[in-house]
Amino acid sequence: MTLLEDTLRQATATLGAAGVESPRVDVEELAAHVLGVRRGQLLVQRGFDEAQADRFAGLVAERARRVPLQHLVGRAGFRHLELEVGPGVFVPRPETESVVQWAVDALARMRADEGVTAPLVVDLCTGSGTIALALANEVPGAVVHAVERSPEALEWTKRNADVRSTAGDPETTLHLADAAEALPELDGTVDLVASNPPYVATSERHIPDPEVVDHDPGIALWAGEDGLDLVRVVEASARRLLRPGGLVVVEHSDRQGKSAPAVFRATGAWVEVADHRDLAGRDRFVTARRASGQAR
Question: Which of 24, 83, 149, 264 has CA 20 to 30 A from 61's CA?
Fold first, then answer.
């Protein structure tokens, strides 16, 4: 057996030197994964056997090459969920949790104020199913549709949806489709549209971390010269899908706190357009209400 703390300390130094943002946390997550325990149980673990030590060293080496932690352990925690992720799908980020919380609160108000007990919800650009499955898990009675245009990403969505269905969550209906054209049969009937679309400008390729640029699929990242191409698509689709008074919430980058709301204000189809910050205090998502009597 090796002394666990000594091993973790050395691995932390390795990841720190490689520029990993949270080296100790990542090392502990990798160690817990190898040992088959939760991170909080590491304190009572004596160490690795020889095979485990070799496996752990290999994972640390990959993480030092900036392979995403979530790819190495095969999962990402998000609110009350554990989502399976890997190559071909965007890794869920903590910032999106504030988007989901706004939607959960908005649907609760819709239930209380309007008597909507089975809200119809659409998640555009669902990726691994992050927003859709969280809302199905947290909003009683919600009827949730998840739209994804990447077949590779949708395979991960299916895995996660199957797990959540087995766990007792209401079934989420999955659609392989482009957000621009998806679900015409629901036009004018949806209560809430949510989306975390691609929003990195092609002129910002130097900004994201290697974990993002080298491992998240480009289809989930790049969105034109200003990063708003897919925000515009989501705005148009939400305008089409939502009933009068329905709500939309769209994540954007922390550099788009003014430009993303401007996309909604420009069409004249929305009221109550507002931008919101995430828990770190950064501009993160725009919300709006579908105006009554406006052309689609």
Answer: 83
